Amino acid sequence: SWQKDFVAVIGSSTNRHALLDASRCWRAGMRTIIATNASQAEADRLTRDSKEHNERYVHVEDEQREDSSQRAHAKRPGDVRAALLPSLAGKLLREEKYEWQWMLYADDDTMFLQPGVHTLLAELDPAVPLAISDNIWLARQHPNLAGPRCLPCKPGQAPLQAPSPDYYVPPMGCPHCYPDLACDYYNKRNGKCVYSGAHGGAGVIISRGLMDRMPHQDMVDCVEGEFGCSGGDCLLSRCLWRKFNVTYTDPGYTVAHNSSRYVVFDNPRAKEI
Question: What segments bear the compositional bias annotation Basic and acidic residues (predicted)?
């Protein structure tokens, strides 16, 4: 069910808390972990006040730099908080002994639609390490159908014995999607393949299987070594790729139609139809 199998994890800040109140309609009582730059005392108060909504607020400070010459991990002060949120939420949920299958990773102005999420995940196994999105960043463009990624693993389906097209088609991610597999097309042609990232504002769906192999301290260590990212989604994507050997699984609608109009994770072009 929506409340039993799913958890929502949302990054926010004190000047945006009103959005969290307004977005409760889509969460509908789902267990929700919210990371904010509010003090721990204020986060505790917010947790008490929102108990009926099944929300827990946690303090994660903004990125601090001693002076302007110090390299930033990402563009905005709250980006590190957004990157660390999934692994932190996984740690907190394990401590709570809370059982769940899928994590809906979102900005505070992102919404997930329940029927669409259930349809998208109906044949996927939450025990497999999956990060799911088809709104992929590559070369400063999103959605970008050239971004290295995989299709869901369907063991009962054999690849068609036909000539491969001379453009990137994501491989089937069996047993899951990892960089070398996602990059196979590029590696065979020119040996150049760079990591792709998901557009965080469109949301990402993360499986329990991935969170179980992503210790929070390992994520902290990875983020501390990354610099110059455009956002928290960039930091998260780099660390999935470089530290945890995982990259994104595309639900496959774009591949079936060979058109970015069929991106399902917040597609601006689809709104023009």
Answer: 42-70
For residues 168 and 145, give the distance between their C-alpha atoms in angstroms, rounded to a whole number.
8
Residue 216 buriedness (CB in 10 A; 0-12 / 13-18 / 19+): middle
Mean pLDDT by 10 residues, the chain (273 residues): 94 96 94 98 98 97 80 92 98 98 96 93 96 91 91 70 70 96 92 89 96 98 96 96 97 78 76 57
Residue 144: domain span: 2-272
- Bridge partners of 170? none
C-alpha 121, offset from chain centre: 15
Indicate the pairing of strand 55-59 with strand 31-36.
Answer: parallel
In a 3-state reduction of DSSP, which class is residue 98?
coil
Q: How many CA atoms lie within 13 A of 2 on its CB side?
A: 13
Across the beta sheet with 204-207, the strand order is: 55-59, 31-36, 6-11, 102-107, 204-207, 131-132
Whole-Å CA distances, 158 to 44, 172, 204: 52, 10, 28
Strands 6-11 and 197-198: unpaired
The sign of the dihedral angle between the CA atoms of 73, 76, 80, 86 is negative
Phi, psi of 31 (to 5 degrees): -60, 125
